[in-house]
Amino acid sequence: MVFMLAIVVVFYFFMIRPQQKKAKDQKKFVEEVNKGDQIVTIGGMHGRVAEVEGDTFILEVEKGGRIKFSKSAISMESTKALIGKK
Asked: Which of 86, 59, 84 is nearest to 71 (CA)?
């Protein structure tokens, strides 16, 4: 019985807890997105936030292109995406 409890505890600390922390950090980042931030969307679109309107934002891409996205489409900050590729 103690062995099964130990397995559950280890599983929690190595699998569940890190995922919950990552989800919490992602939600906090999405809520704090401001005009001028460099971001990457879930689909891989890189750009700068031109406007924030409630649950949506307008992403400015190369050559002045502007695309409207839902905030739930934000994946990460652009600088973190570039660091991850190195």
From this structure: 59
- Answer whether 0.85 is exceeded by the pTM: no
Cα three-residue angle 60-69-51, rounded to 5 degrees = 50
**Which are the contacts of 69, defined by CB distance < 8 A and separation ≥ 6?**
41, 45, 56, 57, 58, 59
Is the separation of the CB atoms in 63 and 47 below 8 Å? Answer: no
pLDDT at 16: 92
Contacts of 58 (CB under 8 A, 6+ apart): 49, 50, 51, 66, 67, 68, 69
Q: What kind and span of H or E run contains 84?
A: helix 78-85
